[in-house]
Amino acid sequence: MTFPDGWVRDSHTYDGVSHPTYRRGTGPGVVVIHEIPGITPEVATFGQELVDAGYTVVMPSLFGTDGAPMTAGSTARTLRQVCVSKEFTKLRTGETTPVAGWLRSLSRTLHAELGGPGVGALGMCFTGGFALAMMVDDSVAAPVLCQPSAPFPVTPSRSRDVNLSPGDLDIVKGRCAAGQQVLGIRYRSDPAVGKRFDTLTTQLGDAFIRVELEGKGHSTVTAHRQQVAVDAVLDFLAAHLRPTG
Fold it and tell me: Given CB 3.0 to 4.6 Å as the disulfide criterion, which of 14, 89, 94, 230 pairs with 105?
């Protein structure tokens, strides 16, 4: 499958590392970070929902085959790719994923171009916690964590870890104490998220907004999409990126 028409392909480079990006829309900026196995048709469809709601959406391509559907084979191939990459943390705790620096640079560039209070950042599944890491940069004004699943919750300590170094967690806590909010969305029975929503509630208090869906599912805004989850994202983005709207 080819990538949907209408998205402009470009790239972003930071510290010698380049990744492709896809962009569409007008209005405040939102960086949408795809899940494993990549920018699937469902991820692109969600990105288009944000475009239709009046946002400039930039989707970086960090791994996988752009536009390809999610299959058992594509998921397995992408997991192999991710597991050998030095850009991502998979099992280590108390550490910010290395790709966060590149993503922060992308958000700064987008904010410098578009202005306004800042940009939104939304990660999902393996990249769910990346939006929290991006929040270390002041350019991110609306961080959304959809079913954050890294580090892989294979032990109790990993299931509680939020994929941030202690220093970065302190910055996030400081921003929340100053009024910033963080939105988290998950299926209540999803084992991939582990106990990290509880950690975020403990660390961030009322600044962490929890939306927990009933039933069995994982991908809250894509493959197992529920309108209540999408509406929560749209409301959160509007509140923080259009404060006078």
Answer: 14
Q: How many CA atoms lie within 13 A of 25 on its CB side?
A: 25
Q: Which residues contact 26 (CB under 8 A, 6 or more apart)?
A: 54, 56
CATH topology for 8-241 is Rossmann fold (3.40.50)
* Peptide linkage before 60 cis (omega within 30 of 0): no
Per-residue pLDDT reduced to its tens digit, 45-81 = 999 999 999 999 999 999 999 999 999 999 999 888 8
Q: What pLDDT, in 10s, does the model give residues 104-154?
A: 999 999 999 999 999 999 999 999 999 999 999 999 999 999 999 999 999
pTM: 0.96
Side by side, which strands form the sheet with 208-213?
8-14, 17-24, 56-60, 29-33, 119-124, 140-146, 182-187, 208-213
DSSP 225: -
In the three-class reduction of DSSP (H, G, I as helix; E, B as strand; rest coil), residue 199 is classed as: helix
Q: Average of pLDDT values for 31-42? A: 96
d(CA 33, CA 30): 10
Q: DSSP assignment of 44-100, as one string?
A: HHHHHHHHHTT-EEEEE--SS-TTPPP-HHHHHHHHHHHHH-TTS-SS-SS---TTH
**Domain residue ranges in the chain:** 8-241
Strands 119-124 and 56-60: unpaired
